[in-house]
Design goal:
about 160 residues, about 65% helix
Length: about 160
C-alpha cells in the first residue's frame, strides 16, 4: 500500500532511532571506534537526512555497525542457547530473547505510552523492514527444501559474525 520510497524512508527513520542500541552494543564490546561512528551516523542522518528519513551517512560512506545487547553478551562468551522462532520477530535464541527487554528500553519507541502504542510502532517498523525484503524471503521459502534449518543456521551464523 505504501510506495517503496516511503517504506525506505520509514526504514531509515527507525534505523536512525535504533542508533542507541547499536551504539551501546558496540560500547559494551569495547569497540570505541564503531561506537563513535554510530554517533556520527546519527548526527549526519538527523541533521542532513531529514531526521533520518534519508540515509545520508551511507551515501557519505559512513559505515553502520550492527550491534545490540545480545551481540555484546555473545562477545563476552554468553552462549546462544536453543533456537526459537518468535511470532512477528522471526528467528532468535535464548540469549537474544533475554536481551530483548534491554534493547526495548534502549529504543526511544520503547517509552511511548500507552504500551500498546509502543508495541504497535515497533511492530510496524519490523513489518515495514520485512516488506522491503519480501522478494528475498520468497526466494528462500520457495527454493530451500528445509526452510527452518536454513533460517536457524543463517541466523546463528550472522549473530556469531557480528559478535567478533
Amino acid at each position: 500500500v505504501i510506495p517503496d520510497v516511503a517504506r525506505s524512508g520509514l526504514r531509515n527513520f527507525f534505523s536512525n532511532l535504533a542508533m542507541l542500541i547499536r551504539f551501546s552494543g558496540n560500547l559494551l564490546q569495547l569497540k570505541f571506534k564503531e561506537s563513535g561512528t554510530e554517533l556520527l551516523r546519527f548526527t549526519v542522518n538527523t541533521f542532513f537526512g531529514f531526521l533520518g528519513l534519508h540515509d545520508t551517512a551511507s551515501v557519505s560512506g559512513i559505515a553502520k555497525y550492527d550491534s545490540d545487547f545480545g551481540i555484546a553478551l555473545a562477545h563476552w562468551g554468553v552462549g546462544g542457547g536453543f533456537h526459537f522462532v518468535l511470532p512477528f520477530l522471526g528467528p532468535s535464541n535464548l540469549r537474544d530473547i533475554v536481551s530483548l527487554p534491554v534493547n526495548w528500553y534502549l529504543s526511544p519507541t520503547g517509552y511511548l505510552e500507552p504500551f500498546w502504542l509502543s508495541l504497535s510502532v515497533n511492530s510496524f517498523a519490523i513489518m515495514n523492514t520485512m516488506s522491503l525484503e519480501s522478494k528475498t524471503l520468497d526466494e528462500i521459502y520457495f527454493n530451500t527444501p528445509n526452510v527452518y534449518p536454513f533460517l536457524r543456521d543463517a541466523y546463528e551464523a550472522r549473530r556469531e559474525a557480528l559478535s567478533k
